[in-house]
Specification:
Blueprint lengths: L3 E5 L2 H11 L3 E5 L7 H5 L8 E4 L5 H14 L4 E5 L6 H5 L6 E3 L5 H17 L31 H6 L41 E5 L7 H15 L4 E5 L7 H4 L8 H5 L5 H5 L3 E3 L3 E4 L13 H14 L2 E5 L6 H8 L3 E7 L2 H17 L5 E9 L7 H8 L5 E4 L3 H8 L3 H4 L4 H13 L7 H5 L5
Parallel strand pairs: 1-2, 1-3, 3-4, 4-5, 6-10, 6-11, 7-9, 7-10, 11-12, 12-13
Antiparallel strand pairs: 8-9
Helix pairs in contact: 7-17, 11-12
């Protein structure tokens, strides 16, 4: 008999919950959400009492599912399973859910919360008491509060249910952060100050290592700037061997950087070789295979960037990780440099070495923006430690978020895929540093909505 429902994209969490609940659990793969929330609800068998939504569901998907399930099964208990906590107030606003649970919560926490919600639904009269117990509560160990992002979101559920689980603060701002000391062996070094009042044109996104979020940053910069400068933004994938911007945007361009770099300076001929994205910006894809990278010389790349700067308001360049010759060429022609790193000591030190070399070569762009990506608490480092290692101030912190993966899998820029996600809001901050007029508005975002 279906008593509990799970809609999820996580095979690991599905396996855990199936082991806990066994035959009374029905799982509907979240892939059905692509066809709308009603397609998911139509797959449900019987009368579920509690639905768990997530992990790896976006805000819009979760909201649509909660509304459809509540309409089809009045009184159903709703638990959202997700790991982010910084934006919970946005999720709770207007969404009829009872609790938010971490996918990493202990089995005892899962059992305890589901048991309490199931009992409360019967006691409060929302659902009939069928006399069946989920699990003997005497077997449930007391759960740690840190396992639950928000144990009790629904105020009535909070007042009326037995407070066996400790409530977690929504803002989580009062939690003391563990102090950590900068590496005492780190020599003192300060990155020179940036220039002022330099107009942005060629924006190079660079990172000392792969996997820092460089390509995601470049894509969302293009999408955000195109909101205020439609069709006057071009995104160049200068990762000449393994660039994947076309894949991340679900584009199938007919031409690549190899063709464009050899096309000469005629504006009409150049624009005919560019791919156009639905979000009103143009894309020059990387060569389709690594061996074609040899056809893109540093001289042709530099000449192309200079020519594009006369045709477009913003030229955004995604680069090869590290400081290869094509990356150095791009930085030589850049007005802005967006440098991306994550919050690990090896990556921070690598960025510092990159800056030291660029200063020695006099290739630090006039405008500089440092993005600290994949930020999460309790990893042993604080922002001030990262700034000490780099020798420069961090401009934007981007929290770790599964929404980045979901947006990439759908081929949509994050800032248009899940506008409420904290990572999307942080990346908006990078866009605003380039163009302060690029303030997101409902009209700008909603005109990008997909069918």
């Amino acid at each position: 008999m279906t008593r509990f429902l799970l809609v999820s994209r996580s095979a690991e969490y599905e396996s855990r919950l199936r082991r806990l609940i066994r035959a009374r659990l029905q799982i509907v793969p979240a892939e059905y959400v692509t066809f709308g929330a009603e397609a998911v609800v139509d797959k449900v068998v019987g009368q579920p009492r509690i639905a768990l939504l997530g992990p790896l569901l976006s805000f819009e998907e979760t909201k649509a599912l909660s509304e459809s399930l509540s309409a089809r099964y009045p009184g159903i208990g709703l638990i959202v399973v997700r790991e982010q906590r910084s934006d919970l107030e946005d999720w709770v606003d207007g969404m009829e859910i009872h609790a938010v649970l971490s996918p990493d919560a202990a089995d005892s926490t899962n059992e305890g919360l589901i048991t309490r919600l199931d009992s409360w639904l019967a006691v409060s009269g929302r659902l009939p008491d069928d006399g069946e117990e989920f699990i003997d509560e005497s077997e449930v160990e007391e759960a740690e509060g840190d396992d639950v992002l928000v144990a009790l979101l629904n105020p009535q559920f909070e007042r009326e249910s037995r407070p066996a689980l400790e409530e977690t603060d929504l803002d989580d701002e009062s939690e003391p952060e563990a102090e950590s000391e900068p590496d005492p062996a780190e020599p003192e070094w300060i990155l020179p100050p940036i220039a002022e009042n330099v107009r942005s044109e060629v924006i190079v996104v660079a990172a000392p290592k792969g996997g820092q979020g460089k390509t995601t940053t470049a894509i969302n910069l293009a999408a955000g700037l195109a909101e205020v400068e439609p069709n006057s933004v071009v995104l160049v994938d200068a990762d000449v061997q393994f660039g994947d911007i076309a894949n991340a945007l679900d584009l199938e361009p007919h031409y690549s950087l190899t063709d464009v770099a050899q096309a000469g300076t005629d504006e009409v001929a150049l624009k005919a070789l560019l791919a156009h994205h639905d979000d009103d910006f143009f894309v020059i894809a990387a060569p389709p295979s690594p061996e074609l990278a040899d056809h893109v010389t540093t001289a042709s790349l530099g000449a192309l960037l200079d020519r594009l700067a006369t045709m477009f308001r913003y030229v955004i360049v995604d680069t090869t990780p590290g400081l290869g010759e094509h990356t150095l060429t791009a930085l030589e022609h850049a007005t802005d440099g967006v440098f991306v790193t994550n919050m690990t000591v090896p990556s921070l030190r690598a960025l510092r070495k990159e800056f030291e070399l660029l200063v020695a070569l006099n290739l630090v762009p006039n405008n500089r923006h440092i993005v600290l990506n994949f930020v999460e608490k309790n990893n042993g480092l604080l922002r001030k430690d990262a700034e000490t290692i780099i020798g420069a101030q961090i401009d934007v912190e981007v929290p770790r978020s599964t929404a980045v993966v979901l947006a990439s899998n759908d081929g949509v820029p994050l800032i248009h895929h899940d506008v409420r996600d904290p990572a999307a809001k942080a990346i908006r901050g990078v866009v605003l540093r380039i163009d302060p007029t690029a303030v997101p508005t409902r009209k700008r975002i909603h005109r990008k909505a997909r069918a």
